[in-house]
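During the no-cost extension, the postdoctoral fellow (Dr. R.K.) reprocessed legacy sequence entries with the updated structure-token encoder. One reprocessed record is reproduced below for audit purposes.
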Amino acid sequence: SGDILRQAQDINYRYLIENEYSIIEADRILQLKDTVKSFYLSHNNVAEYQTLIEHDYFVTDYFERYVDQLEKHPEMDVIEVLRSVNTLRDRSLYSDIQSADLNEPSLILVNKYYQLPKDFVPNLEESYLGFMMEEEAALALIQLCEAMDSLNLNFSISNTYRSYDLQAKIYNRYLETQSQAMVDTYSARPGHSEHQAGLAVDFKTETADITYFETSDAYQWLIENAHSYGFIQRYTLYNSYYTGYQAEAWHFRYIGKELATIVYETKLTLEEVLLLYR
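Re-encoded structure tokens follow.
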């Protein structure tokens, strides 16, 4: 088996040299992890994209889209290019809309590119104070809120599950006074809301509406601890471009403890974590 491996290495080495990689580059490439090494070996000389290809955010199937972004937006650095493509922001918002994958109820990705059917209703269970959520999220919300109660934090819940029709009413009401371009920065079109998936909860304090929640002790506690219960702040200022939404301090989304911890540690969006870590 050692001879076979050595022969494979020799063939790969010759291939890289024949494709005008330097001896140093060829030696380095053959030491990379298998997926990256295979990418180099299946393409003509792409040494100019080394920083892109060898980044942790690189997805081989998106290579041509990354290159296209680099050419269209020379002002972007490599990380911005990788993140914009990985979150589909190299496409116009609400374009090429796909059906959301419903196979894992707690991990449904619904955004401005993935849409829920109009008649979709999750398996709902009663959660904290009777609010309805997807069954796994409902139990997690109870645990989260009980922890907050034990600390005497000032919080309440504004809403959780919303139907397609209710989301349509809310969205259309905003359209009565503002342009669609403006409304789209803070309100989901019907079928594109995480609330319809039963996975989102909007918090507020007991004495003020949701827009003041960011100033509360409850919010400060949540951003440091919500991941331990499987929740993330879905729309942050840091990721506003990549999610397509203004920051929402009140909007938390259930994704389970494992992925929520990755979001917490990396500060990446849900879209990126689902793409890179599942």
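Strands lie at 98-99, 114-115, 124-126, 132-134, 156-159, 200-204, 231-233, 251-254. The two ends are 32 Å apart (CA to CA). The remaining legacy entries will be reprocessed before the final report is submitted.
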